[in-house]
Design a protein that fits this description.
2 domains; alpha/beta; D-Maltodextrin-Binding Protein, domain 2; 13 strands; 264 residues; three-stranded parallel sheet; six-stranded mixed sheet; binds arginine
Length: 264
């Protein structure tokens, strides 16, 4: 009898567990902004390999300017923010399924705007070129026919593709993480890496043998970072933009720039 009662209790506990698991999965991501705002949770996708905007902190959790900005936005919107670290190349396609929005030093591009909307821009950036200090590369034409590395699916990746279109002896290698491209540059497997200026500056400080050249010498244009949002969700876009504006007005934004970017 005692055994039967114990078996019964175990069964009940298992069933309860299964139910709560199912619910957890259902609630992992709200399907509309109304749901997510009423449930009070915003799932923010990022790719935490892009310092100072996002990286894995000493405690093993994503940290950086964008992460702090996302949390500040969540606070203004009165929702909890959950950060989901994933591959950069998967972020846009995951909006509306695995994540609600994405913040990842992401440049507004026409191509991405076909799939997602963007918040107001919060940072101006530019691509630059990392080279070994003893390299002779100095301008756009010098990159033709060279071995160029970049992070997969980034604007640096598109710029490398453009160079290959101009000269198909150019070799292009893409990496899941920009730091892996930098390592190959340091090891002599690449001639140059095209990467956003801030992370390039952070990485160049870690290796004595490489340096950063200005994107303007290569004809690279200014890019604008913004938060990627589900397409045509005006309510959510309004809330995110309002929060962003408040954060700029009340000085939080400048504090975060000082804390994360100016100290890089
Ligand atoms: N700004 C570039 C782009 O939008 C690179 C962004 C990479 N971000 C990252 N978190 N890895 O394509």
């Amino acid at each position: 009898m005692k055994k039967k009662i114990i078996a019964f209790m175990i069964t009940v506990v298992c069933i309860l567990n299964l139910c709560s698991c199912g619910k957890g999965q259902e609630k992992a991501k709200a399907s509309t902004s109304d749901d997510l705002l009423s449930e009070g949770k915003l799932i923010v996708g990022t790719n935490a390999s892009f310092p100072p905007f996002e990286y894995i902190g000493k405690d093993g959790k994503p940290d950086g300017f964008d992460i702090a900005l996302a949390k500040a936005i969540g606070k203004e919107m009165k929702v909890d923010v959950e950060i989901q670290d994933m591959e950069f190349d998967s972020l846009v396609a995951s909006i509306g399924s695995k994540i609600d929005i994405a913040i990842a030093g992401m440049t507004v591009t026409n191509e991405r705007q076909k799939a997602v909307d963007f918040s107001n821009s919060y940072y101006d950036a530019v691509q630059c070129v990392l080279i070994p200090k003893d390299s002779k590369i100095a301008n756009h034409d010098d990159l033709k026919g060279k071995k160029i590395g970049s992070q997969m699916g980034t604007t640096g990746d598109s710029l490398s593709e453009n160079i290959k279109k101009e000269d198909d002896t150019t070799t292009i290698s893409t990496y899941d993480k920009a730091i892996d491209a930098v390592n190959d540059l340091v090891n002599g497997r690449l001639d140059a890496v095209i990467l956003d200026k801030n992370p390039a500056t952070v990485f160049a400080k870690q290796y004595e043998t490489i340096e950063v050249l200005n994107g303007s010498d290569f004809g690279f244009q200014t890019e604008h970072y913004a938060i990627a949002l589900p397409k045509k969700d005006e309510k959510l876009a309004g809330k995110v933009n309002d929060a962003l504006e408040k954060i700029k007005e009340n000085g939080t934004f400048d504090e975060l720039v000082k804390k994360y970017i100016e100290t890089e």
